[in-house]
Amino acid sequence: MKNRPYIRLMLFAVIFTALSCQDKAKKSNTSDAQAAAMSASNHSQFELIIEESKVDWKGFKPTGTHTGTIALEKGDLATDGGKLQSGTIVIDMSSINVTDLEGDDKADLEAHLKGTVAGKKGDFFNTTEFPKAIFEITSTESLAAGKTTLSGNLEMLGQKHNITFPVNITNSEDMMTIESKAFTIDRTQWGINYGSKSVFDNLGDKFINDEIELKFTVKAKKVSAE
Question: Where is the Lipid/polyisoprenoid-binding YceI-like domain (predicted)?
Answer without folding.
Answer: 47-221
